[in-house]
Amino acid sequence: MDAIKLFKKPSVSITDDLECYGYELTFTNQKFVLSYMHPLLPYRGMLLTYQLGNGKTYAAAALSHLYTTYGFDVLFLSHNLNVKENFKKEYLTFIRNHNLDNNIKKIKRMGLTKFFISKPDINGGLVIIDEAHNLRENANRYPEIKNILDKNKNIKILVITATPMIDSINEIDSLRSLIEPSAPIAYSEKAKNTVKINYIGKEKNFGKIMLSEMKGNQLNTYLKAYKNAHYDVYSEVRQASVTASKHYNNNIPLSEQSAKIQILLDSLIKGELTAVFCFYIKRGINFITSVLLNNGFEQWKPNSMYDENIRRFAIITGKTSEYETSSAISSFNSIMNIEGGVIEVMLGSSVLNESITLKNVRHAHILTPFWNYGQTEQALGRVVRIGSHEMLPRKQRTLNVYLHASHIKNYNKYNDIGKKNVEEIGIDIEMWKTSWRKKEEINNYINRIGKLSIWNGKWNPTCETKIPPVDNKMVIKANNCIWDLNRCFETNRSKISWCNVNLNNAICYNCDSGEITLGPPTYYIKINRPLAEGYTIWRSCVDEKLRLTNNSLKSKNKRCSYRGKLIKNINKDEIIKIADDLNVDHNINAIIENLKKDNRFFDKQIEII
Questions:
Q1: What is the pLDDT of residue 474?
Q2: Which of 7, 133, 378, 485 could bridge 44 with an S-S bond, Cβ 3.0-4.6 Å?
Q3: pLDDT of residue 557
Q4: Where in the chain do CATH 3.40.50.300 domains reside?
Q5: In terms of CATH architecture, what is 196-425?
Q6: What is the pLDDT of residue 127?
Q7: Residue 529: how many CB atoms within 10 A of its CB?
Q8: What pLDDT sits at residue 281?
């Protein structure tokens, strides 16, 4: 493989000088990634921070395919299996949408831990790091991975994350440094969608949250955990704010075991899909499972069939197998499940927070807050994406979001805590306050990034596209487009075309917009090749010579048999044999006329129809 040239440091003004590359069904923000990161341009890389649902992974899949068509290696790095499988799914969707060849075997997918341990040699090409917010400067893997990337100056690097900052605005610098300290940032606002989002609960000075008052067993458990908490370690307190214990007791009112889960249960509406995100397994997912089973629900299994009379739930955690995870998501997202006939409720731990799409969700519950809002955004990003609700009628394209917070009311009664005249208090409320404060600080910084980034959603390339001259051979004009097909035809050293044609490498120049579209020609361009059975006469677009092909005309050079034999080189005995096969007079003109009548004569290899 040829090494890519060393990369110049990019400047903000470079966006005005970029030619606009893209595939037919890629959006403008995705075309920008393809244009800036094009394998023939000299730029080292970028930090791609498009907001959730803006098609970052799809853009990465398109870019990967582009690199493979130029003969470069592609290495996709991620921190977990779901992310790698989602990339593969997006890539397969991309090539299916554009009728392209499948090059997935040319794209190596690897976990960050394996990359860190194996320290592989990278000999040029493209490295993609997805969900890069999991790779922080203070992580053990970070220095070694950065060192590997720094040593390989002949690679390009695409770092992807929708949450480049989680706890501090300084975190974005460590991600940029994976490329180089001054690496450019591509940023865009949240994708426009037709989903109306309603936050359910009580308005506080930091946002709207769903409050639930702890009582009975849960209250006692919470107060005990709070008193025994050491310094800033609140693990037991946080778990107590979800449930009183690991096990659901059917003899005790649910509201006294878990105020949050009581609200969750009351909010479930038959015929409307619900997604539940909970960090804890035993005192969260498992507890909810017992509650649902005791309230008429069944747990979904991979062989579960549609039945509108059965209410089911599915579970995805770190222990769920790859097969069950894929099957559950596929069943949940299917058109048969729009009203929950297969799975009504999806329960997920933190593994559900990234690289998974849940469609047609009407209710989303975040049961466990975090000290930062990035985790919450990742969870909500699973259910609000481009096209996530398009199967629903317009009036039903709504999402109710419940940000749960357990609390104690009239706290002044508990003098030993030392709080007085407080309406609501609890660890959940403190966590939401902290996460919202961080969110505001990060959002203010992101707004500044939007003004300074190399692309902020307002890209209008002004450079004049370099369009190749039309020769009506390999470069043709059709409608308002000029198609360059030079890279589509396999040739030998003598520049004689073979019959092998790779239309993936076609390039279309739009004369009106200046955009450059990659991929197969549209329906009005026809590529003629020798037909599978019988005789064919065709003219090569490379040397413009007529050839006749048929299995009976074997050349000593096996490859020549694929493209046929030059008409002028066919001898008398061969003409007689062909004429007899076609039942025509023994001359080449009679043979040509017969094949024309049967639509087996192509005077042009490339036709506009």
A1: 83
A2: 7
A3: 42
A4: 12-192, 196-425
A5: 3-Layer(aba) Sandwich (3.40)
A6: 96
A7: 17
A8: 93
Burial (CB count within 10 angstroms: exposed 0-12, middle 13-18, buried 19+), residue 578 = buried
The Cα–Cα gap between 43 and 14 comes to: 10
**Measured CA distances, 545 to 46, 497, 499, 553 (Å):** 47, 10, 13, 17
Find out whether 509 and 467 touch, Cβ atoms under 8 Å.
yes
pTM: 0.72
DSSP 281: I
Residue with tokens 């501090």: 168
CA 350, 351, 357: angle at the middle one, nearest 5?
Answer: 110
Q: Give the tens place of pLDDT for each residue, 142-169.
A: 888 898 899 888 899 999 988 888 888 8
Q: Are 21 and 67 in contact (CB under 8 A)?
A: no
CA distance 477 to 509: 9
Backbone angles phi, psi at 593, to 5 degrees: -60, -40
Cβ within 8 Å of residue 508, ≥6 positions away: 481, 482, 483, 484, 516, 517, 518, 519, 521
Rounded CA-CA distance 103/91 in Å is 9
3-state secondary structure 369-428: CCCCCHHHHHHHCCCCCCCCCCCCCHHHCEEEEEEEEEEEECHHHCHHHCCCCCCEECHH
Q: Which residues are CB-contacts of 576 (< 8 A; sequence separation ≥ 6)?
A: 586
Which residues of the chain carry a pLDDT beneath 70?
A: 1-18, 137-139, 189-193, 230-233, 353-355, 410-423, 449-465, 490-500, 522-523, 551-563
Cα separation of 342 and 340, whole Å?
5
CATH code of domain 12-192: 3.40.50.300
Question: What does the pLDDT read at residue 555?
Answer: 46
CA nearest to 109, candidates 57, 152, 35, 162:
57
Q: What are phi and psi of 315, to 5 degrees?
A: -125, 135
Asked if 221 contacts 244 with a C-beta cutoff of 8 angstroms, the reply is: yes
Report DSSP letters for 491-516, one per residue. Answer: E-TT--EEEEE-GGG-EEEETTT--E
